[in-house]
Amino acid sequence: MVNTTQTDSCRDYFTFGMMLPGRNGGSSNYRYGFQNQEVDPEIKGEGNSVNYKYRMHDPRIGRFFAVDPLAPRYPHNSPYAFSENRVVDALELEGLEMVVVDDYFSEETQNTIMEIIKGDEWLSEIILNRENKEVEAGTHLLIVYPLSHTDERHGFTVDITSLAMTYLNGKKAPATDLKAKQDALDAEKALKKLLPDFDLGLLSEASNISVIAVNKKLIKKGIARVAQTFLHEMIAHYIDILDDPETAHEEKGTNDPPGMSDHLEYFGLDESDKNTPEYKGVIGKGVDAQSRSPQENFKPGSSADKVDKAIKAVLPEKDD
Questions:
Q1: Is a pLDDT exceeding 80 seen at residue 273?
Q2: What pLDDT digit, counting tens, does each position of 222-259 carry?
Q3: Is the pLDDT of residue 138 over 80?
Q4: 194, 207, 106, 237: CA torsion to nearest 10
Q5: In degrees rounded to 5, what are phi and psi of residue 217?
Q6: Which residue among 138, 215, 257, 272 has the highest number of C-beta atoms inside a 10 angstrom radius?
Q7: pLDDT grade, residue 307 (50/70/90)?
Q8: Are the CB atoms for 151 and 194 separated by under 8 Å?
Q9: Closest C-alpha among 296, 193, 198, 206 to residue 245
């Protein structure tokens, strides 16, 4: 057997994306670089101008060369800062805002998931090109958090805005406001129970805060499994929060558990499947699409099917 695998690019970077001298190479036809963004070498040289959707970034100085479109909403931030100067625990999203990512998720995992999203027209449209993206970016913060190995869930999505605001308001309240202080303690306990070891300092970044938690044990099984679970949480649940935060995860007028309709829609299941093991497994445990064979878990044309195809386009061999 002849191995015809070809490496298009191999690069190591400094923290803001400047290439390390002598530690990069690849095909000149490959146009992408730091954080899987397109690079423009014509004026500043190779790797020195990174083209995010909304602005150009110079990784040598860690700055954008245009004012942040969201600058009026963030007077405390430099309008030229890259990823709000948080290059260890955050990922710059299209030159508009940062997404906080725990360092348990490698840069390779982050970049591969972004490559999957950007390489698929449907995923790009519903995640990166949303009609109200600029408004959402100014008010919403998404935190990706590692879930303990001992947790049975592959992942979950939660809107923690109410608890976060109660916690922050209580912290800022004067010492004489005993009720606010007690409410803050109660909120802190609830947050710690929900997300053990979570950095509460992240809560001050936006007025609406959501967490996508992905189980650490999936990371050991490969990027495809992480991507499958993350995109399930993003599409089936987080988009629902963005579209209607007041009613996200509610199943009004029924006795169904929260999130059930999200799972039905995502996996392409309906009432006619209600007595099947697939229906009960997906709804009861929130099983992601690669935990079983695709034929057992979702229907052709469903969101889960589209995600599965997008992942396989980038990662043809399931890497678990």
A1: no
A2: 888 889 889 998 888 888 777 765 554 443 333 444 56
A3: no
A4: 60
A5: -65, -25
A6: 215
A7: very high
A8: no
A9: 206
Nearest to 298 by CA among 260, 277, 259, 268: 268
pLDDT at 125: 87
Site of tokens 């995860």: 249
* 51-99 tens-digit pLDDT: 887 788 888 888 888 888 777 766 777 888 888 777 766 767 665 555 6
pLDDT averaged over every residue in the chain: 75
Phi-psi bin for 47: left (phi > 0), alpha (psi -120 to 50), beta?
left
